[in-house]
Specification:
286 residues; alpha/beta; Hypothetical Protein Tm841, Chain: A,domain 3; 6-stranded mixed beta sheet; 4-stranded parallel beta sheet; 9 helices; 12 strands; 31% helix; Serine/threonine protein kinase
């Protein structure tokens, strides 16, 4: 029985990479679904899958985030993991698909939930922006703010794993040091920089296009953008990464996990020795 992966918006469900990858469940916003229906839907997911791992961006409206916690509280269930992510919307979609791939492997729900933190380190998420005047997710200097008002200015921004901002034509974004694929989503900006310059520089093997998530313009501070994310597409590589980390048992809820924090109850491991092996997995290339 695969662990259910859930997201908070339909545009965070990327097409599967193969015929085995399951889809994701949708957790509606309060204005789109009454509380009793949301509780009933979550109850069905738990009955069918046993556990639910829900991913949502840190930019999610407060009312929607509160709804997620309310549903879990009403059900009094310790089998729902709510994972708040600092990734941009397209990065959240990529990570959700990777967890969907892993959900049908021989990993327990606790391993799948805690794998989100590990795998996010291997996602390079950014955007090509027509303006950074309203970008508040990463540091922007006053000089760069001033340049953003110049006609025709475009900026390459990397939000994750290490923030970086360049003006197009004046530098390069630091990319992954391992083979990846890249997904891009076009907003109201016309440019071939992502496919013609960035992808070759990052040695991307394949490039795919997806619809722009509805929250992307708000996240990046402008609708004049092309969002992108480079990722590890091969489930065998993802499986190897997760398998390489020492497994522990949460001292609070008893579920199995990797890393130093439980994905279901968020309790940290208490013994420093328990974290042996996690740093190597986070820093080693695939």
């Amino acid at each position: 029985m695969p662990t259910a992966i859930a997201v908070t918006s339909a545009d965070l469900v990327l097409p599967p990479t193969d015929h085995q990858t399951p889809s994701a469940a949708l957790l509606h916003a309060p204005e789109d679904q009454p509380l009793d229906a949301a509780v009933a839907d979550m109850s069905v997911l738990l009955e069918q899958h046993g556990y639910v791992v829900a991913l949502y961006p840190a930019s999610l409206p407060t009312a929607h985030e509160r709804r997620l916690h309310t549903v879990r509280a009403v059900l009094e269930s310790d089998r729902v993991a709510l994972l708040k992510l600092d990734l941009p919307p397209l990065g959240v979609a990529v990570l959700a698909r990777q967890l969907r791939q892993l959900s049908i492997c021989d990993f327990s729900a606790g391993i799948v939930a805690s794998a989100a933190r590990l795998l996010s380190h291997y996602i390079h998420a950014g955007a090509l922006l027509g303006s950074v005047a309203r970008l508040d997710r990463i540091p922007v200097s006053l000089r760069t703010h001033a340049k953003s008002w110049m006609p025709g200015s475009q900026f390459g921004v990397l939000a994750h794993p290490r923030p970086q901002l360049i003006r197009i034509g004046g530098g390069e974004l630091a990319g992954p040091e391992y083979a990846t694929q890249l997904v891009l989503a076009r907003g109201q900006l016309q440019s071939e920089w992502v496919t013609g310059t960035l992808a070759p520089a990052w040695h991307v093997r394949h490039t795919h296009e997806a619809p722009l998530p509805a929250d992307s313009a708000r996240w990046w501070g402008t609708a004049r953008l092309i969002e992108f994310a480079a990722f590890l597409p091969d489930v065998s590589v993802l499986y190897q990464l997760v398998s390489s980390v020492r497994r522990e048992v949460c001292t609070w809820c008893g579920i199995q996990l990797i890393g130093d924090r439980c994905g279901f109850c968020f309790a940290p491991l208490t013994a420093p020795a328990s974290r042996t092996g996690a740093p190597r997995a986070l820093t080693a290339g695939p």
